[in-house]
C-alpha cells in the first residue's frame, strides 16, 4: 500500500514547498520502501531504465520509483507483462523498487491520432494501437504494478482546443478513472492510482476537472465504487505532464505554467502526492517546488544529458566556492576536446580542497568498486580472487574517448552519474527546506544566477552526439535515433522568459 | 612471468596452466574478449571482471589513433586509462594497418602507410610498434610481423616469414633496451602461410630466441583458408612450440559462427589462448550463445518464451531471470538489451573454457569434447574438419554413436538460427 505523508511542520496551506515521505509497504513480504520528497523518479524505455543493465540498475541505488509506460508492449498480443508481471519480467527488486505503470510515455509528443470515447491511442513499434479502458484495466490487473496512472484524454493536437473538445476531454478522463476504480466489471479495484490533471491549457477546464474529482458521486456510482464517496477518495495522488501541457498552450512564463497547475490543485487536497513529468531543467523543478509544491520529478533532463554525453555537475544549494559565479554550465559536454586530457572525475572542484559540503559523488562512475564475488569458471583450480574492491573513478578523459569512439558504456556510466546528481539535487532541496522556506527562496535565486538555465551545454553536446553518431554509428541502435527525434520536440533551449 | 602447467591431458595436447603476469594470474586455456577501443562493448571494467574475465585484448592501431600515445602516457597506460586491473594484451597494430589502411607498403624498415590524420606517408617500424605498446603498457605485447593474407602463395610468403623473424629480433632488442622485459611479455608470432615446411622453419628460428620471448603466437591464419588447412597449420606449430611457453592462436576464424569450434579444437591441439570478438559482436545483433547452439533472439518464436537463455548459466542476465521474451523485446533496440547479451555471451565462452580446464585437470577432456559436440551438433551433424582434427590427437568424436546415426558434414561447421522455423 502506498502512502504519502507530508512532514506536518512543513505543509503549506495549498501551495508552496513541502517535504514529505512516500512509503510503500508490500503486503506479501512486508518490504517497506521509503522515498523522501521532493525526490526523483526514473522512467523506462521499453521496460528498461535507458542504458542500464540489471546489475548496473542494482548498483544505482538512487533508483526507487520506476515509471513503466506500457505502450511498447502492445506490439504483441497478449502483451508480455500480462503473461508475467512487471516485477519479475523486468527484473526490478521488490524490496527496493516501486513500479508505476502508465499507458503512454508522457514525454513522447510524436503526433498520434486523437483518442475516442472508448479508447486511447498509444504508440508502439508496429504503429498506433487503440486501448480501451477495460483492456487497460486488465493489463493493470495482470501486470501487477505497485502504482497506476489512470488513462487521461490528453489533446496532443496543436492548440487552441475548442471548449467542446475540452469538455469531452474532461468527461472521458473522468469516465476512464471511474472505470478503473469500479469493482463491478469483475476486476478488483486498482489501488494506488495517480490521476493526470486534465484540462490542458485552459484554466477553466482544469478547474472543472478538479471539481469533478471531488464532487459527490452520483447514486449509481456509489454502488459501483463503494465505499468511495467521490472519485478523489479513490486516488493516491496527482500528476502533471508538463511536456504535453507545454504542447497544448503557448506559455510565456513560468508563472503561467505554475498558474495552470494551481488552477487544478486549488480545490484538491494538499495531503496527496504530486508528480511532475517532463520538467526541463533543475531550475524549473525548484520553481515548481517553490510555487506549487511537487513531490516527485522524472528529471528527464538528467536522462537526456546521459544520451548526449553530458556529465551533470551542479549542486543545490550552490556550494560556497561558486556563490559569486554566474551562468555556469550545469554539466560537462564530454564530447568537447577540452576534456581529452582531463583526468579528473566528473565532479571535481577546480580548487584543490574539496569542502565538506562537497564529498565525492557516490555514483558507480565516480566511486566505482569491484565486486568481491566474481564468477569462477573452473572452481577446482584455485584462482584466488582479489578481496580488494577499490577502483579508481572514471575520468572525463576516458568518457571523452568512449564518446568519440561511440562506445556504449559511456552512456551507462553517465546514466548512473546523472541520476545520482539529480537525486543529490533533491536531497539538497530537502535539506534547505528543513532550514526554512525563507532560505529556500534565496537559494533558488542564487541557483538561477549561478547556473545557466538555457542549458546551452546540452544543445552543444547533442550536436556533437549527432555528428559522431553519423560518422561512426553505422551499427548504432536505431532506437537511439528515434529517441533523438522524439527529444527534438522538447527543445532544451528554453523559450519561456526566466523570472529574475 | 610465471607459467606453471597444472595438468596435461593424457590423450590430446591440451594442458591447464596458470600464467601469472604483471596484473595477476590467468588460467589457461582461455579466450580473451576484445575491447578494441579500451572498452568491452557496453560493459564497465567492474562488470567485465565480475564475469570471471582475467585477460582482455586492446587493439594498438585503434588506441594509437584514439586516445593516442600522449594521453595514454599522461594516464599512466591503458590499464589506468580504462580502469582495468587484470591482464591486458595488445597486438602490434600491423594487422589492422594492413587491413584498414588504404595504402600500405611493406619495406625492410617497416610498414609504410598513409596517416589517417593527414594522409602523409608514415612508417610503422618494429621499434615504433613496441614503443607504442610500451605506452599502452599491456602485460602481453606482440611483435610486429609481416602479415600476408593466408591465401597468398609464392615467394612472398617465405619473404614475409623471414622478415617477421628479423623484425622479431628488432622488437626484442628495442624491448630489452627499454628494460621492459620484466613488466611486459613480448610474444613472437609464427608465420609461414599455409606451407608446413615454412611453418617448421619459422618455429625453429623462433625457438632459438626462446630466452627473449614470453610466449608464442600462431599468426597468418585469418579465416580465408580451408578449415582443413587451418587446423593442420595450428597443429604443426603447437606441436613444435616449447612446452613451457604459452601458445596463442591469433585472430583465428573471422568467419562468425565457427569461432567456438576453432577455440575448442585449438585447445585440443595444444593452444592456450585465443582472442574472440564473437561474443560481443553477435550480442549486438541479438544472438545468444548456448551449449545447444546459438539463439537468434530476434526471431518470433522467442516472443513468448519465459525461459532464460540457458538454464544453469550464472551470468547476470540469466541469474536475474531475464527471459528470452524480454530480450526479444529489447535486443537491437535498447542498449541494455545488447549489454545483457554481451554479459551472457562472455560468460558462455568463459564457461566453455572453464569447463575445458576442469576436464583437462580431471583427465576427462576427451569426454568433454564429445559431449560438447554432441549437444552442439547432435542434430545438424558434426563438421568433418573437427572430427579429423580431433582424431589427429586421439579423440574420436563419433565413439559410442551407432553408425547409423553418425552424421558428418563438410564445410565450416556453421550452426545458426537463421530464419523463422
Ligand atoms: Zn558520479
Ligand atoms: Zn547467461
Automatic annotation (TrEMBL), chain A:
Q: Where is the composition biased (Basic and acidic residues)?
A: 468-486
Cited InterPro entries? Queuine_tRNA-ribosyltrfase, TGT-like_sf, tRNA_ribo_trans-like
Query: Which GO terms fall under biological process for this protein?
Result: tRNA modification
Polar residues bias locations? 487-500
Q: Where is this region: Disordered?
A: 468-500
Q: Tell me which residues make up the tRNA-guanine(15) transglycosylase-like domain.
A: 129-436
What's this protein's name?
tRNA-guanine transglycosylase
Q: Which organism is it from?
A: Sistotremastrum niveocremeum HHB9708
Automatic annotation (TrEMBL), chain B:
Q: Which cofactor does it need?
A: Zn(2+)
Which GO BP terms, alphabetically? tRNA modification
The chain positions of domain tRNA-guanine(15) transglycosylase-like read 12-376
Subcellular localization is given as: Cytoplasm
One Pfam family hit = TGT
Which residues participate directly in catalysis? 91, 275
InterPro entries per the UniProt record, alphabetical:
TGT (IPR004803), TGT-like_sf (IPR036511), tRNA_ribo_trans-like (IPR002616)
Describe the reaction catalysed, as an equation: guanosine(34) in tRNA + queuine = queuosine(34) in tRNA + guanine
Read off the Gene3D superfamilies from this record. Answer: Queuine tRNA-ribosyltransferase-like
Tell me which UniProt keywords the record has, alphabetically.
Cytoplasm, Glycosyltransferase, Metal-binding, Transferase, tRNA processing, Zinc
Region described as RNA binding: spans on this chain? 280-284
Under the cellular component aspect of Gene Ontology, which terms does the record hold? cytosol
Amino acids binding substrate:
91-95, 145, 191, 220
Listed GO molecular functions?
metal ion binding; tRNA-guanosine(34) queuine transglycosylase activity
Note the HAMAP family from the entry.
Q_tRNA_Tgt
The record's comment on protein family reads:
Belongs to the queuine tRNA-ribosyltransferase family.
State the function annotated in the UniProt record. Catalytic subunit of the queuine tRNA-ribosyltransferase (TGT) that catalyzes the base-exchange of a guanine (G) residue with queuine (Q) at position 34 (anticodon wobble position) in tRNAs with GU(N) anticodons (tRNA-Asp, -Asn, -His and -Tyr), resulting in the hypermodified nucleoside queuosine (7-(((4,5-cis-dihydroxy-2-cyclopenten-1-yl)amino)methyl)-7-deazaguanosine). Catalysis occurs through a double-displacement mechanism. The nucleophile active site attacks the C1' of nucleotide 34 to detach the guanine base from the RNA, forming a covalent enzyme-RNA intermediate.
Subunit info here reads:
Heterodimer of a catalytic subunit and an accessory subunit.
Q: What name goes with this protein?
A: Queuine tRNA-ribosyltransferase catalytic subunit 1
Q: Give the organism, scientific name.
A: Sistotremastrum niveocremeum HHB9708
Amino acid at each position: 500500500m502506498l502512502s504519502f505523508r507530508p512532514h506536518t511542520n512543513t505543509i503549506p496551506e495549498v501551495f508552496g514547498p513541502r517535504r514529505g515521505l512516500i512509503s510503500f509497504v508490500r503486503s506479501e513480504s512486508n518490504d517497506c520502501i521509503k522515498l523522501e520528497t521532493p525526490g526523483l523518479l526514473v522512467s523506462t524505455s521499453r521496460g528498461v531504465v535507458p542504458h542500464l543493465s540489471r546489475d548496473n540498475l542494482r548498483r544505482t541505488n538512487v533508483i526507487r520509483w520506476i515509471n513503466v509506460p506500457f505502450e511498447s508492449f502492445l506490439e504483441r498480443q497478449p502483451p508480455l507483462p500480462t503473461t508475467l508481471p512487471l516485477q519479475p519480467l523486468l527484473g526490478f527488486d521488490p524490496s527496493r523498487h516501486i513500479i508505476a505503470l502508465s499507458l503512454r510515455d508522457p514525454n513522447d509528443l510524436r503526433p498520434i491520432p486523437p483518442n475516442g470515447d472508448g479508447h486511447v491511442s498509444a504508440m508502439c513499434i508496429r504503429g498506433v494501437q487503440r486501448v480501451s479502458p477495460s483492456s487497460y484495466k486488465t493489463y493493470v490487473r495482470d501486470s501487477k504494478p505497485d502504482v497506476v496512472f489512470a488513462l487521461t484524454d490528453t489533446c496532443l493536437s496543436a492548440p487552441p482546443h475548442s471548449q467542446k473538445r475540452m469538455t469531452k476531454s474532461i468527461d472521458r478522463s473522468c469516465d476512464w478513472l471511474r472505470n478503473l476504480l469500479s469493482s463491478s466489471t469483475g476486476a478488483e479495484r486498482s489501488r494506488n492510482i495517480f490521476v493526470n490533471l486534465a484540462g490542458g491549457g485552459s484554466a477553466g477546464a482544469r478547474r472543472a476537472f478538479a471539481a469533478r474529482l471531488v464532487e459527490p458521486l452520483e447514486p449509481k456510482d456509489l454502488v459501483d465504487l463503494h465505499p468511495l464517496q467521490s472519485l478523489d477518495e479513490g486516488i493516491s495522488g496527482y500528476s502533471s505532464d508538463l511536456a504535453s501541457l507545454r504542447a497544448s498552450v503557448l506559455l510565456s512564463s513560468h508563472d503561467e505554467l505554475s498558474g495552470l497547475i494551481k488552477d487544478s490543485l486549488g480545490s484538491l487536497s494538499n495531503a496527496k502526492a504530486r508528480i511532475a513529468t517532463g520538467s526541463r531543467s533543475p531550475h524549473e523543478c525548484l520553481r515548481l517546488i517553490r510555487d506549487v509544491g511537487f513531490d516527485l520529478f522524472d528529471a528527464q533532463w538528467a536522462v537526456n544529458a546521459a544520451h548526449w554525453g553530458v556529465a551533470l555537475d551542479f549542486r543545490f544549494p550552490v556550494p560556497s566556492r561558486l556563490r559569486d559565479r554566474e551562468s555556469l554550465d550545469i554539466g560537462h559536454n564530454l564530447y568537447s576536446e577540452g576534456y581529452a586530457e582531463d583526468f579528473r572525475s566528473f565532479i571535481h572542484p577546480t580548487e584543490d580542497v574539496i569542502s565538506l559540503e562537497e564529498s565525492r559523488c557516490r555514483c558507480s562512475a565516480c566511486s566505482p568498486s569491484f565486486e568481491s564475488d566474481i564468477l569462477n569458471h573452473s572452481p577446482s583450480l584455485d584462482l584466488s580472487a582479489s578481496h580488494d574492491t577499490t577502483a579508481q573513478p572514471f575520468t572525463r578523459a576516458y568518457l571523452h574517448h568512449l564518446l568519440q569512439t561511440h562506445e556504449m558504456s559511456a552512456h551507462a556510466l553517465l546514466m548512473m552519474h546523472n541520476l545520482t546528481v539529480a537525486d543529490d539535487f533533491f536531497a539538497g532541496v530537502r535539506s534547505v527546506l528543513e532550514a526554512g522556506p525563507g532560505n529556500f527562496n534565496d537559494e533558488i535565486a542564487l541557483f538561477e544566477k549561478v547556473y545557466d538555465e538555457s542549458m546551452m551545454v546540452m544543445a552543444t553536446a547533442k550536436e556533437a552526439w549527432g555528428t559522431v553518431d553519423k560518422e561512426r554509428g553505422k551499427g548504432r541502435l536505431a532506437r537511439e535515433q528515434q529517441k533523438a527525434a522524439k527529444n527534438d520536440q522538447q527543445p532544451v533551449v528554453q523559450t519561456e522568459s526566466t523570472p529574475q | 612471468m610465471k607459467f606453471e602447467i597444472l595438468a596435461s591431458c593424457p590423450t590430446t595436447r591440451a594442458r591447464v596452466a596458470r600464467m601469472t603476469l604483471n596484473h595477476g594470474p590467468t588460467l589457461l586455456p582461455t579466450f580473451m574478449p576484445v575491447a578494441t577501443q579500451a572498452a568491452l562493448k557496453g560493459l564497465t571494467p567492474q562488470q567485465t571482471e565480475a564475469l570471471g574475465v582475467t585477460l582482455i585484448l586492446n587493439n594498438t592501431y585503434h588506441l594509437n589513433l584514439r586516445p593516442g600515445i600522449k594521453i595514454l602516457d599522461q594516464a599512466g597506460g591503458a590499464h589506468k586509462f580504462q580502469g582495468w586491473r587484470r591482464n591486458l594484451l595488445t597486438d602490434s597494430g600491423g594487422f589492422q594497418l594492413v587491413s584498414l589502411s588504404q595504402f600500405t607498403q611493406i619495406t625492410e624498415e617497416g610498414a609504410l602507410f598513409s596517416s589517417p590524420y593527414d594522409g602523409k606517408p608514415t612508417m610503422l617500424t618494429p621499434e615504433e610498434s613496441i614503443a607504442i605498446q610500451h605506452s599502452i603498457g599491456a602485460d602481453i605485447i606482440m611483435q610486429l610481423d609481416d602479415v600476408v593474407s593466408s591465401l597468398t602463395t609464392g615467394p612472398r610468403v617465405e619473404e614475409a616469414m623471414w622478415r617477421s623473424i628479423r623484425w622479431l629480433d628488432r622488437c626484442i632488442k628495442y624491448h630489452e633496451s627499454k628494460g621492459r622485459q620484466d613488466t611486459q611479455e613480448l610474444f613472437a608470432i609464427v608465420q609461414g602461410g599455409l606451407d608446413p615446411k615454412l611453418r617448421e622453419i619459422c618455429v625453429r628460428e623462433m625457438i632459438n630466441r626462446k630466452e627473449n620471448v614470453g610466449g608464442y603466437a600462431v599468426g597468418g591464419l585469418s579465416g580465408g583458408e580451408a578449415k582443413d588447412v587451418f587446423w593442420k597449420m595450428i597443429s604443426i606449430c603447437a606441436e613444435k612450440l616449447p612446452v613451457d611457453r604459452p601458445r596463442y592462436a591469433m585472430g583465428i576464424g573471422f568467419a562468425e559462427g565457427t569461432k567456438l569450434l576453432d577455440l575448442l579444437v585449438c585447445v585440443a591441439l595444444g593452444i592456450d589462448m585465443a582472442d574472440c570478438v564473437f561474443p560481443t559482436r553477435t550480442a549486438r545483433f541479438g544472438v545468444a550463445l548456448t551449449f545447444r547452439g546459438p539463439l537468434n533472439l530476434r526471431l518470433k518464436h522467442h516472443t513468448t518464451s519465459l525461459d532464460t537463455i540457458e538454464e544453469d548459466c550464472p551470468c547476470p542476465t540469466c541469474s536475474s531471470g531475464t527471459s528470452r521474451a524480454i530480450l526479444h523485446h529489447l535486443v537491437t533496440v535498447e542498449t541494455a538489451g545488447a549489454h545483457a547479451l554481451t554479459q551472457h555471451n562472455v560468460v558462455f565462452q568463459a564457461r566453455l573454457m572453464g569447463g575445458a580446464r576442469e576436464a583437462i585437470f580431471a583427465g576427462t577432456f576427451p569426454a568433454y569434447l564429445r559431449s560438447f559436440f554432441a549437444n552442439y551438433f547432435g542434430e545438424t551433424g558434426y563438421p568433418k574438419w573437427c572430427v579429423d582434427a580431433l582424431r589427429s590427437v586421439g579423440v574420436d568424436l563419433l565413439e559410442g554413436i551407432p553408425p547409423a546415426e553418425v552424421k558428418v558434414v563438410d564445410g565450416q561447421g556453421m550452426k545458426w538460427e537463421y530464419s523463422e522455423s
